[in-house]
Amino acid sequence: MAMSEIRSDSFEYVRPLRPLRFPAEAKVLESRRHLEVRTALYQLLSFHLEGRATVGSDQFVYFDASNPKACLAPDVFLQLGAEGPEIESWKTWERGTPDLAIEIASRSDAPDEPWQQKLDRYHTLGVRELVLFNPRVPPTVRIWDYVDGDLAERKLSPDVPAPCAVLGLWWVTVLDERWGPMLRLAHDAEALRLVATRLETEIAARRAEAEGRRIAEARVLELERTLAALREREG
Q1: The domain containing residue 87 runs over which residues?
Q2: Confidence tier at 187 by pLDDT (50, 70, 90)
Q3: What's the Cα-to-Cα distance from 151 to each of 90, 130, 162, 178, rounded to whole Å?
Q4: Please, what is the Cα angle at 233 between 231 and 235, to 5 degrees?
Q5: Residue 15 lies in a domain
Q6: Where in 65-125 does DSSP place strands (E)?
Q7: Count of structural domains, the chain
Q8: pTM for the predicted model, two decimal places
Q9: Would you give the DSSP letter of residue 168?
Q10: How does pLDDT run across 141-176, given as a tens digit for each residue?
Q11: Taking 90 as the threshold, does the pLDDT of residue 114 lie above it?
């Protein structure tokens, strides 16, 4: 016989409960460029990993059930596996640790101290792969991996696609006409085959459909010409 779950709120406790509040959002100034780069990456990953991961963007990730201040708000993050419920805030004691987190540098970021503090929190979180993308010219990508309890920065070659260990893809920088450098993913180390966005996939499908119609129409026209030629010879 299966065991039935006993609700914890049915017990009596020796002192009154002191529930902690873990906010779901906070107002933070964000430039339009930062918003566009963040949103594009979130939409790309959500589309590419649909049904295979839970993807979040700019929500609080809490990693200490006793301390609401122990949190991060990655620009984009994901956890592999079956897609989970909608994210309001992410609590690791309920949903586990994200596999990948991406931070997009902005002009409001101070040079060293704040990032080091954020890096320490990511180390405590235990994220498998952390990416810092600086879209300013020239754009830079830095990557940290969680290895043997350490969050270690990877050695990367400038202007060379970097492996995304979590997804088995490659990090690349692509120039957008309006917003400048954008962080993208590619299927190959040469970055010849970019991971397609939803819009790119729809455009490619429409082009393939149009090309299919063009080929079919050309075949019909050729068949009509062949039949007309046969009728002329028979007549």
Answers
A1: 20-195
A2: very high
A3: 21, 9, 17, 35
A4: 65
A5: no
A6: 71-72, 76-80, 90-91, 100-104
A7: 2
A8: 0.79
A9: T
A10: 999 999 999 999 999 998 899 999 999 999 999 999
A11: no
